[in-house]
Amino acid sequence: MERKEEWQRQLTILIISFLAGYFGLDRFYRGQIGWGVIKMITVGGAGIWYLVDLAIASYRLGKLG
């Protein structure tokens, strides 16, 4: 069950990253409050940080699948 739960968690992070990554919500979900605030203030690092986090979330989900 642990693998399935981790897969579901990574899927949730990917969805949050896609829908609200510009506002740092994916970082807040991971418990990285400071990085979430910085990402929110910079609007996803002008989009670059948003894309990087989206790619990382996709990679991690694919690695589990």
Can you describe what's shown?
- This protein has 65 residues and is mostly helical.
- Helices cover 85% and strands 0% of the residues.
- The chain is built from five helices and no strands.
- It has helices at 2-20, 25-30, 33-41, 43-46, 48-64.
- The longest helix has 19 residues, at 2-20.
- It has one domain (2-64).
- The helix-and-strand class reads mainly alpha
As for the number of domains, it is 1
Arithmetic mean of pLDDT: 91
Strands, count? 0
Summed up:
The protein has 65 residues and is an all-alpha fold.
Strand-helix topology:
Layout: H1 2-20, H2 25-30, H3 33-41, H4 43-46, H5 48-64
Helix pairs in contact: 1-5
What key attributes describe this structure?
5 helices, mainly alpha, 85% helix, 65 residues
